[in-house]
C-alpha cells in the first residue's frame, strides 16, 4: 500500500500548481505551467497576465479574489486547448481578450463580481460551455446571438448584474432586452437560471415563457421607470425561486397580487389568508433604493425566509402592513437565524 501511495504521489507531482493567499504580484514562471493540469492562484495581488503560456494539459485555472487583477492580454489563452474550468470571479478584469475563442473545451466560466461590461462575440466558439456565471458583475451588453449559440449551457447566472442606469449601444442589454429572453428560451439543456430584468415589458415576456420561470432560482428586478405598482403574483409559479431582489424603483408605491381563489381579481393584503404559502422556496430577499414603497406585506407568503435586507427605502415605516388579518399565523420571520 505504501509503495502504491508513493507511486501515485510521484505520478501527480508537477500536475498541480497551488499558490493561494501568498501575496503574489505576478504569475509564477510559465515554465511551471507546461505540464500542469490544475492551477490555483486565488486570493493574491496579481495585477496583469501577459504572454502566451503553453499549457496542453491544463484543465483548471482559478484566479478568483485577485482584487488587483485588471488585464489579461490577447494571446494568453492561445495554447490552452483542454482548459475546462476558468474562474475570474471577484477580480477587476474589465474585458476578456478575443483569444478566449481558443478555449474550445471550456465548460465552466465564472465572471461574477468583475468589472466586465461587455462579452466578446468570440465567446461563440465556447461550444462546450455548460455554466456561465455573471452575477454581481458590471455587465450590461451581450452580443446578439451569443447566448443562443452556446448550445450546451445548463446554468446561467445573471443575478444583480449591470451598471446602474446604463444604456447599451448596439448590443443586447443583459437585463433589459426581450431578445435575450428568447435566446435563453432556446437553450435545450438549461436547468439553473438567475436573471436581472430592467423593464416591465420584458418582465411580462419572461413570465409568459413556458420554460424560464420553472428553472429560475434568482430574479432581480430593477429600474422599472414610471411603475407605481407591481404585480408579483406570477412569481408563485416559480417553484424553485430562492432569491429575489428589487432595486432602483423610483416611483413604486405598492405591490399587488392577482389571487386565483378570488377569480383573478386584484385584492389587497387584508383580503388574503397569510396561512396560504406561495413562496415555499424563497430564502433571500433584498430591497434597495425603492424610495416610495410603503411596506413588504407580501412577505407573509414566504414562510421559509432566512435573509431580508432593506436599504434606502425612505417611505417604508413598517415591513408588514397593519391592515393584514391575522388568520391565526402571521409571522413570516420565524426561520431567521
What characterizes the major β-sheet?
12 strands, parallel
List the helices and strands in order.
HEEEEEEEEEHEEHEHEEEEEEE
Shape: elongated
Q: For the largest sheet, list the strands in their spatial order.
A: 1-2-4-6-7-8-10-12-13-15-18-19
Secondary structure category: mainly beta
Gyration radius, rounded? 23 Å
User: What is the strand content?
Assistant: 15-25%
Short summary:
The protein has 337 residues and is mainly beta. It has helices at 2-12, 146-149, 178-185, 200-207; strands at residues 16-18, 38-40, 48-49, 60-62, 71-72, 85-87, 108-110, 131-133, 141-142, 155-157, 172-173, 192-197, 216-222, 229-231, 243-247, 254-258, 266-267, 284-288, 307-311.
Give an overview in words.
The chain has four helices and 19 strands. It is mainly β and 337 residues long. Strands 1-2-4-6-7-8-10-12-13-15-18-19 form a twelve-stranded parallel β-sheet, with helices on one face. Strands 14-16-17 form a three-stranded mixed β-sheet, with no helix packed on it. A two-stranded parallel ribbon has the order 3-5. The N terminus is likely disordered.
List keywords for this structure.
about 325 residues; mainly beta; 4 helices; about 20% strand
Helix/strand layout:
Elements: H1 2-12, E1 16-18, E2 38-40, E3 48-49, E4 60-62, E5 71-72, E6 85-87, E7 108-110, E8 131-133, E9 141-142, H2 146-149, E10 155-157, E11 172-173, H3 178-185, E12 192-197, H4 200-207, E13 216-222, E14 229-231, E15 243-247, E16 254-258, E17 266-267, E18 284-288, E19 307-311
Parallel strand pairs: 1-2, 2-4, 3-5, 4-6, 6-7, 7-8, 8-10, 10-12, 12-13, 13-15, 14-16, 15-18, 18-19
Antiparallel strand pairs: 9-11, 16-17
Amino acid at each position: 500500500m505504501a509503495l502504491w501511495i508513493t507511486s501515485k504521489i510521484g505520478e501527480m507531482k508537477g500536475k498541480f500548481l497551488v499558490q493561494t493567499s501568498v501575496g503574489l504580484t505576478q504569475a509564477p514562471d510559465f515554465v511551471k505551467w507546461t505540464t500542469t493540469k490544475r492551477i490555483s492562484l486565488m486570493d493574491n495581488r496579481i495585477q496583469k497576465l501577459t504572454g502566451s503560456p503553453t499549457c496542453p494539459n491544463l484543465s483548471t485555472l482559478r484566479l478568483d479574489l485577485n482584487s488587483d487583477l485588471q488585464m489579461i492580454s490577447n494571446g494568453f489563452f492561445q495554447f490552452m486547448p483542454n482548459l475546462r474550468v476558468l474562474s475570474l470571479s471577484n477580480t477587476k478584469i474589465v474585458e476578456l481578450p478575443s483569444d478566449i475563442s481558443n478555449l474550445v473545451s471550456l465548460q465552466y466560466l465564472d465572471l461574477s463580481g468583475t468589472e466586465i461590461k461587455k462579452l466578446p462575440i468570440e465567446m461563440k466558439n465556447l461550444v462546450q460551455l455548460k455554466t456561465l456565471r455573471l452575477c454581481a458583475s458590471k455587465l450590461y451588453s451581450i452580443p446578439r446571438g451569443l447566448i443562443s449559440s452556446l448550445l450546451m449551457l445548463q446554468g446561467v447566472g445573471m443575478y444583480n448584474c449591470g451598471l446602474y442606469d446604463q444604456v447599451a449601444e448596439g448590443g443586447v442589454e443583459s437585463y433589459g432586452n426581450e431578445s435575450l429572453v428568447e435566446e435563453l428560451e432556446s437553450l435545450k439543456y438549461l436547468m439553473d437560471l438567475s436573471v436581472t430584468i430592467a423593464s416591465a415589458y420584458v418582465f411580462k415576456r419572461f413570465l409568459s415563457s413556458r420554460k424560464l420561470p420553472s428553472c429560475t432560482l434568482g430574479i432581480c428586478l430593477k429600474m422599472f421607470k414610471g411603475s407605481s405598482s407591481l404585480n408579483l403574483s406570477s412569481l408563485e409559479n416559480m417553484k424553485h425561486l430562492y432569491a429575489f431582489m428589487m432595486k432602483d424603483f423610483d416611483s413604486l408605491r405598492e405591490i399587488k397580487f392577482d389571487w386565483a381563489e378570488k377569480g383573478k381579481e386584484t385584492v389587497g393584503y387584508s383580503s388574503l389568508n397569510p396561512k396560504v404559502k406561495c413562496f415555499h422556496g424563497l430564502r433571500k430577499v433584498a430591497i434597495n433604493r425603492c424610495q416610495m414603497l410603503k411596506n413588504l406585506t407580501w412577505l407573509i407568503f414566504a414562510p421559509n425566509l432566512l435573509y431580508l435586507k432593506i436599504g434606502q427605502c425612505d417611505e417604508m415605516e413598517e415591513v408588514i402592513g397593519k391592515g393584514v388579518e391575522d388568520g391565526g399565523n402571521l409571522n413570516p420571520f420565524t426561520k431567521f437565524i
